[in-house]
Amino acid sequence: MKSQKGITLITLTVYIIGLAIVIAMVAVVSGFFYNNIEDVATNIKPNTEIAKFYSFFSEEMNYDNIKVLEYDEDYIVFSNGVQYAYIEENQGIYKDRVKISEGVSRCKFRYYIENGKHMIGVEISIENTNVNREFALGR
Prior knowledge:
Blueprint: H1 9-61, E1 68-71, E2 75-78, E3 83-87, E4 92-95, E5 98-102, E6 104-114, E7 117-126, E8 129-136
Antiparallel strand pairs: 1-2, 2-3, 3-4, 4-5, 6-7, 7-8
């Protein structure tokens, strides 16, 4: 009797079908992965630019005896000489003459007193992200 070594046609067919299923699952999962990476990349830039502005601005708020000397919707000047300004033509927020945030479609400053505390409200829009934040002056 002859020795039977190797695989049969049916076994080969089962292996190929199993391999095709595994490849299809990997393709679907990697498709979802790449779509999510694109979504995350579009959301990171606005959040990064807003975080950069807030890090500079909140540092300014923590100085002792800081006061607002002058303000408008597009700019604010503090008693230590630092000015934050939104320049619509450049789509940027500047600290003095240094651009700290870019791609900004809108930025509005508000200064008001609430319950005896001096407050500054900042509204920023970058792409589809809109953020309003309130800051208290001084410590």
